[in-house]
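Data availability (excerpt). The following record was deposited with the supplementary files.
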Amino acid sequence: MNIFGISRFGQSAISLLFSRLLVFSMALIGCAFAAPNYQEHIAPIFESVCTECHNAGKQSAGLDLSSFASVMKGSSGGEVVRPGLPDTSALYLAITHAEGVKPMPDEGEKLADDEISLIQEWIAGGLIDKPGGKSLLREMSGYTKGEDGPTVDRPTEAIYPSNLPEVPATQVLNPLPVMALAVNPWSDVIAVNRLDQIAIYGRTEPSSQFQHLGNLPYTEEEIHDLRFSPDGRYLLAAGGGGGYFGGVVLYDVVSGKLLKKLAKEDDVVLSADISPDNKHIGVGTPLKRVKIYSVDTGALLHEIDKHTDWVTAVAFSPDGKWLASGDRNGTIYVWEVATGGIAYTLSEHNSQIHSLSWRADSKVLLSGGDDGKLVLWDMKDGWPSRSIKAHDEKSETRYTRHTGVLGTTIDDEDGMIYSIGRNRVLTKWKPDGNRASSQSLDLLPTQVVNRSGSDYLVVGSAKGDVFILSKDKLEIRQGFFYESARE
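Predicted structure:
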């Protein structure tokens, strides 16, 4: 008898709905106090939805989800979950109906968003099997405050600009975004891109405000990257004109004198870095090439064509052994500087790499991409020890997109990580990848850098302005603005 006028099918559907609501409610209550585990939180979801086709007796695609051991065993195609890496776990891709992946369930609607989130958290938390169980996340390489710091000795003489060339600020109708930003590792000196020049700011006392010290002329079209050498003596500027030329310019930091031009390219240099011993320049271009040049002779030492899209980020490891490069597809390679050979191929991102930062001991590489993820790579074997959804927000259309990591920096003194994103948030992370604190910004940040061991960060904005923020509270202390726009 159907006293509510609901069909048998409808009664079955409602029964299933209440069952799943009950399962998830119980799972949520347990999860509120601890990281999700298979026994309490995941197994009930699988039992209510998945195990009809994926059990010990009926293993569709060779997959059994009825026990923790069988889940870890995987399917006929291999492993289905990777500890800490939901975005590249086959099971997670299937239940989210990712493009190009056979969906689960293969008929009907996908799991509820809350159930998918719980499974995602379980994988990200290290696939804990039961209450009190051990996470399968790989332990991060230890970092000892101050002892694993810079491999370059502090300069014996103060490095501070004096008698910079008199270059007036270029007048512009609309300020350029901050596309390149750098801070000297040994003195409070900041460099930022401007139209046809590089603006230099500095201070001689920690208690004083930064002042505009002058401008360095730049005649190579647009600036895409700025880096101080690890010893603080040189400033590297990279850029060019899209589609027809590019290169790198080296300046003396104290005098502002242009020392030499290197890496003459047929397209703009999107990213460049100088090695810790000042002997090599590494560059990346839209021509899908990574090149390593000699600073002394200007000779091309290695040309690498492994990338399949624009090379958007490069960075030397602090020990000088490796050069990391990332492209617009999200692929990262780590090269041996001495030979130009591949050490590692790193595949965890699925969109453009915006930032590559090395920990001071060269044991960990940090990457940030347009997919909103931060990934901490263990350089012992190239394994992604942590994959963090750092700056990831849903948006209704591509025109309101707020997902994407736009910049990262690591403090060499304590290993703390700082990141900025398209969601207009600045976040501080502990060395192991756990979130420490966050601060919403009333601006779209484009670059973030820090002077290791100091108490401040430097953030550039899409409107061309630069801000000094405290590392402890992530609060703005000082702002200085696009000079010609205020004149």
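Summary of structural features: Residues 8-124 form one domain.
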